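Quick one, T. Sequence first:
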Amino acid sequence: MTALLSSRWVKLGLAVIGAGALLAAGSLSGPYQAQIATLAAIYVILASSLNLLLGYSGLLSLGHQAFFGIGAYWSAWLTTTWELPMVLGLVGAAAGGFVAAYIIGRITLRLRAAFFVIATFAVGEICRQVALNWVDVTGGPMGFSAIPPLEIGSLQFLEPTETFPVCFAIAGICVIFVARLSQSSLGYSLRGMARNENLARAVGIDTARHANLAFSIGGSMAAVAGSLYAHTVGFISPEVFDFTIMINTLLMVIGGGLGTVVGPVIGAVLFTQLPEVLRFSSEWRLVIYGGVLVLLVRFLPRGIWGSLVQLLKRWTTPTGSGGAGPAGEAKPVEPPGAAEPPGALTGQRKDAAGLTRAAPTVEGGAP
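Structure tokens:
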């Protein structure tokens, strides 16, 4: 059963079924729900980009919404002032977010622990103040309006039921990209760096370069989400740099499953839809929302998807399998004093060069 759940074809089938269900639910539920689903798809991109930093690299950035806002303003400026097509505005936002994250990462990643967290928080606040006071470029408190809608060539997507499939497709591409990245050499290096940076540096991993690369890729993905938001809503203001966006994204990543591919997707969909479901009570809505968060953290510390994967592994692992072979035969007993092979310690593996590297955790790999 465990081998069946870990099969690549089973994972692919479950992913296709889940994607099809989300696409059908967002497209066939009416304009209002389609608009909420579009926002959820944008948050999937933003949460996946933050998960690349926090979940895989172990970097807690409290200014990640800055790249979301940079992508929104940069794409809006390219498509209105320079009158570029929306597709080029999206590409320009991704490039601009990458460059901005690279420059900011070169400065902030020199810091560690709480100093890095405070520095990234300051970056987000600086960007908000710039958008608020640079009136000639950003429009100041009045915001940036008349942003063209989503379009591909001469085909425009105006209605929510039309914009959702486009945002859904781009979100799917970003999720697949993160899944492939998590299984690459960079993904394993990032997880090793998150577990023990000194050990990762000792075995030859360029931690500074890899951390800055992850920071830049995460900033580029966040800028793509900001660009889609700007062209979907048609208006942006300095509120796109608000710290509330950062908190919501952080809840989506932790609540869905930190360090997993599917977790941020579940978190983005759940925490985008939950406030709408709780609108039946304007007085108790925030109380219920807070209670759900407390229960989630208390009883599902690994997040929804991380806890589900752990529970499935417990159910599918035969009781007492550690002492019996495949046919139920007892495993041979090691002679007294037998030495363990190098790299046999829990959480380590031996590479081709004979060096012992930190092995990825269960949460770090793709589900």
